[in-house]
Design brief:
121 residues, 8 strands, 4-stranded mixed β-sheet, 2 helices, alpha/beta, single chain, 2,3-Dihydroxybiphenyl 1,2-Dioxygenase, domain 1, globular, 2 domains
C-alpha cells in the first residue's frame, strides 16, 4: 500500500516548481488533459494538486487543510540547504515532545510543510 494526498491549487506551475526545484522532489508529472500535477515521494507515497472544482470554495477546500509532514534523514541539513535557496521558515529545527526534530515552512499557497526527523530514543 501507499499514501497519496490531493490538494487544490490556484497556481499549479508555481506549486510544482516549489516542490521540485525548491524542495528537490525529482519524480513528478503533469496530466495536461486534467491539469493534474503529481509528485512522488519515498516509499511510493505521492502528493497531487489539481485546479479547484467548480462551485463555491467550501465545496472544494475544507477549512484548515492538513499540513504536509515530510520525514527527512537530516532536518538540520535540509533546513540549511533550503535557507541557502532563499526559503523562509516559520520555525527552525526544534525538538518536539513527540520525539521528532521539526522545521516548518509554507508552500507558495500557504500550506504548512513540516520537515521532520525522528530523534533516537
Amino acid at each position: 500500500m501507499r499514501v497519496h494526498v490531493d490538494y487544490n491549487s490556484h497556481d499549479l506551475d508555481t506549486v510544482r516548481r516549489f516542490y521540485t526545484e525548491t524542495l528537490g522532489f525529482s519524480d513528478f508529472g503533469r496530466d495536461e488533459a486534467t491539469a493534474y500535477v503529481w509528485i512522488r515521494a519515498a516509499g511510493g507515497s505521492s502528493i497531487g494538486f489539481s485546479p479547484p472544482s467548480p462551485g463555491p470554495p467550501e465545496q472544494w477546500r475544507p477549512p484548515r487543510e492538513p499540513s504536509l509532514y515530510l520525514i527527512v534523514t537530516d532536518v538540520d541539513r535540509a533546513h540549511a540547504t533550503l535557507v541557502a535557496r532563499g526559503v523562509t521558515f516559520d520555525q527552525a529545527p526544534t525538538d518536539m515532545p513527540w520525539r521528532h526534530r521539526v522545521a516548518t515552512l509554507r508552500d507558495p499557497e500557504g500550506r504548512i510543510v513540516c520537515l521532520a526527523q525522528p530523534i533516537a530514543s
